[in-house]
Design brief:
Layout: H1 3-8, E1 12-13, E2 24-28, E3 33-37, E4 46-48, H2 50-61
Antiparallel strand pairs: 1-2, 2-3, 3-4
């Protein structure tokens, strides 16, 4: 994904973010979903397809990645 597309993306933080610096931001990119570290907005961006994002969200909601 090229930088101009990423710079125009509408990034949003996780609703679970409590203002601490450990936040994940996501953005719809038209061709998929971008995921980045909020502490490093100019850093690398992981991109996944919409279907991959839906699968990930579903397994997280099911508790399959609960680290507690």
């Amino acid at each position: 994904m090229d930088r101009p597309v990423l710079s125009r993306a509408s990034w949003r933080k996780s609703s679970r973010s409590n203002g601490v610096s450990n936040c994940v931001e996501v953005a719809g990119l038209g061709t998929g979903i971008g995921i980045r570290d909020s502490k490093s907005p100019a850093g690398p961006v992981l991109t996944v397809t919409a279907a991959e994002w839906v699968r990930f969200v579903n397994v997280v909601k099911a508790g399959e990645h609960d680290l507690n």
